[in-house]
C-alpha cells in the first residue's frame, strides 16, 4: 500500500524568510485579495522577529506560520490564525501562497495540516474564513475542504479604495471529525 507523504509542512517563520515572503506578498496577483501588505523586507523581518516573542494562538492575536516544502524547506507561503478574544474556542484562518506554488493542491495540504492543529491539538470548536467572493480559487478550496458558506455580506468592507463583498465560511470540529455525515 502506497502512503501519501506530505509535500508541505507548517513551521515557524524565520528572519531569513523575510525576503522570500516579501517577494510573493508584493506580487500583485497574490496581494490582490490580501489586506496585509508589508511595505519593506525590513518591516517584514521585524514582524517575523516579533512572532518569536509571542505565544502562538493567544486569544485576541493573529499568528503567522510558514508553509514550506517538506523536501527542501523552501518557503512557499504563509498562513495566519486569529483567535478572537471574545470566543477563544474559534479561530479565523487565511492562507497565502506564492504564485509558483499555486494550482498544485498545496493550499489544500496546508489547510489540512492547519485544521489538524486547530481541531486536533488545540481542540477548537469552529474554524472560519473571510473571503472576497472574487477570489474563486479560495472559495473553491474552502468548499472542497467541507467548509460551509454562512454569510454573504454585500459591500461590507472598505478594501483597497472600494467597497467589497465578504463571504464567511466555517467548519465545525464535529464536521471535520466525521466528514460526509
**In percent, how helical is the residue content?**
25-40%
Q: What is the arithmetic mean of pLDDT?
A: 92
Assign the CATH topology: Aminopeptidase
Q: Major sheet, described briefly?
A: 7 strands, mixed
Q: How large is the share of residues in beta strands?
A: 25-35%
Overall strand count = 7
* Structural class computed from helices and strand pairing: alpha+beta
Give the name of the CATH superfamily: Gcn5-related N-acetyltransferase (GNAT)
Just name the CATH architecture. Answer: 3-Layer(aba) Sandwich
Q: Order of strands in the sheet with the most strands?
A: 1-2-3-4-5-7-6
In the predicted model, the low-confidence regions spanning at least 5 consecutive residues are: none
- Order of helices and strands, N to C? EHHHEEEHEHEEH
Please report the number of helical segments.
Answer: 6
Outline type: globular
Radius of gyration: 16 Å
What is the CATH C-level name?
Alpha Beta
User: How many domain modules?
Assistant: 1
Q: Would you write up a description of this structure?
A:
The chain has 181 residues and is of the alpha+beta class. It has a single domain (8-177), classed as Aminopeptidase (3-Layer(aba) Sandwich), CATH 3.40.630. 30% of the residues lie in helices and 33% in strands. The chain is built from six helices and seven strands. It has helices at 18-26, 28-31, 41-51, 106-121, 136-144, 173-177; strands at 8-11, 61-69, 75-83, 90-97, 126-131, 148-159, 162-172. A seven-stranded mixed β-sheet has the order 1-2-3-4-5-7-6, with helices on both faces. A hairpin with a 5-residue loop joins strand 2 and strand 3. Helix 1 (18-26) packs across helix 3 (41-51). The chain is globular, with a radius of gyration of 16 Å. The two termini are 27 Å apart.
